[in-house]
Amino acid sequence: MTTNQQRFETVSELQHAIADAFCQTVEETLREQPAFRVSLSGGSTPKRLYELLAERDLPWDRIHWCWGDERNVPHDHADSNAKMVRDALLDRIEVPDANVHPVPVIVDSPAESAANYRETLHQLFPDETFPSWDLVLLGMGDDGHTASLFPHTAALQEDTSWFVENWVEKFDAYRYTLTAPAINSAKRIWFIVSGGNKRSAFESVMSDDSEAATFPSKLIDPTQWWLTEDVLKV
Ligand code: 6PG
After folding, report:
1. Which of 29, 73, 150, 158 is deepest in the core (most CB within 10 A)?
2. Overall pTM > 0.85
3. What span, in angstroms and rounded, lies between the C-alpha atoms of 103 and 68?
4. For residues 103 and 39, what is the distance between their CA atoms, to the nearest angstrom?
5. 165 C-beta closer than 6 A to ligand 1
6. Closest by alpha carbon to 163, among 99, 101, 115, 217?
7. CB distance 42 to ligand 1 below 6 Å
8. How confident is the model at residue 233 (pLDDT cuts 50, 70, 90)?
């Protein structure tokens, strides 16, 4: 895939631009196919984007919302990505319940949770080797992780399963995540990265001299980087 970089002075300009691009992409896609299937990023940067999307007028009944990763907490927990997206977007639009596909977290049984979500995804993308998302939105942490593909974790090695539970030592907790091949199969992959604290990780991810095991965002072949200037070299 070819990768472009869109750069913005402020995170607000970035988020408004992505909201415009998201709407344009949905409209273009829905001229050619019945549904638009998107995998959402968690974290704080995309929250404002989701709030902006809630103010737009899109064919909500033709968009399917999935999560690229989730924390091992109930959906009403403050750390839940499902809660964040519901609060910012889904509870503010008329979207059919059948179009919303949160990770069915069973806190005490991460393997079962991941297996159940794999089933959901295989039903959304029947007979596909990997899911042909219309769009995957990703953030990047200051350690170079994306989704819940954290440095030196088992999920980085997964090359066939679409979605797995992933033990993250530094959190002493499980996370849930799309695997790299299940992200790279998307038609569009957008990284949304803002903050000077991410400059070093971004440089490492873009460098040929670093390892994907240490900077997992290197595993991804994005079509677009959406960046604020503070992420780039001064
Ligand atoms: C999560 C995200 C994670 C996030 C990065 C960046 O569940 O936290 O999916 O991968 O995108 O940690 O988060 P910010 O955008 O909040 O810096």
Report:
1. 150
2. yes
3. 9
4. 11
5. no
6. 115
7. yes
8. confident
